[in-house]
Design a protein that fits this description.
By secondary structure, the protein is α+β, with helices and mostly antiparallel strands. Helices cover 20% and strands 58% of the residues. It contains three helices and twelve strands; from the N terminus they run αβββββββαββββαβ. Strands 1-2-3-4-5-9-10-12 form an eight-stranded antiparallel barrel. The protein has a two-stranded antiparallel ribbon with strand order 6-7.
């Protein structure tokens, strides 16, 4: 998927570069839009350059959104507070030369959480069908990551970047995920006990399966001004 997205962006940029000068001669005037937005990855801003009647390049950054959730796994409740932020660089293709566009590019999301595990009853943790006393191992803490690094992104949207002035815009898309979970005990007994370490790793895999989804939805709505 990453190779397909990069190939699409590369081919489209090459085509735009070869036709932009001819398009300008034909009467199209390139425009720049700046926007403020809110969405599923937080609040932020973007800048879009409509350099061709049918194409634009858009950069975006969002941050400042947190989502608290919990997971029950084999008698342990894991509390997780996910912080969401993302930056992206993408090519927008306007097939009809108007407002509707298709979008492809790369996103650098960072959706991760600090995790605290609490035994549901009796002060006993159960990992991989093995019981461990909280008095013995202490608390269980760690972190969970839904997606991080550079990931492919595709979407569709509606934006009046060919007309000067204020307007609203919206976009729906998906970004690839790569879930991971890391757990440890506050007394670090797993460093001395291979069996505990193996059971914690099995618990990590189980939690990873709980949060793992093929893609994370991206939805934004904002206000933009086009120069």
């Amino acid at each position: 998927m990453k190779k397909i997205t990069c190939l699409f962006v590369g081919v489209a940029l090459a085509a735009a570069a070869s036709t932009s000068s001819a398009n300008t001669l034909a009467g199209f005037e390139p425009k720049v839009s700046v926007g403020a937005l809110a969405g599923l990855t937080g609040f932020g801003a973007d800048v879009s350059w409509r350099f061709h009647e049918n194409m634009a390049v858009t950069g975006r950054y969002t941050d400042g959104l947190s989502i608290g959730t919990d997971y029950d796994e084999d008698g342990v409740t894991y509390d997780a507070d996910f912080d969401l932020k993302a930056s992206s660089l993408k090519l927008d293709y306007f097939p009809f030369g108007g407002r509707f566009y298709l979008s492809a590019g790369v996103m650098m999301p960072n959706i991760e959480a600090n995790v605290v595990g609490t035994p549901q009853a009796g002060g006993v943790y159960e990992f991989n069908n093995q019981s461990y006393s909280a008095a013995e191992i202490g608390s269980v803490v760690g972190n969970a990551t839904l997606t991080d690094g550079t990931q492919p992104y595709v979407g569709i949207g509606w934006r009046s970047s060919h007309e000067a002035g204020f307007a609203t815009f919206s976009e729906l898309g998906v970004v690839a995920t790569d879930a991971s979970v890391s757990l440890s005990t506050t007394r670090n007994l797993e460093a001395l006990d291979p069996a505990l370490r193996a059971d914690l790793q099995a618990e990590e895999e189980s939690l990873r399966d709980d949060i793992d989804i093929p893609v994370f939805p991206v939805a934004v709505f904002g206000i933009t001004y086009t120069f």
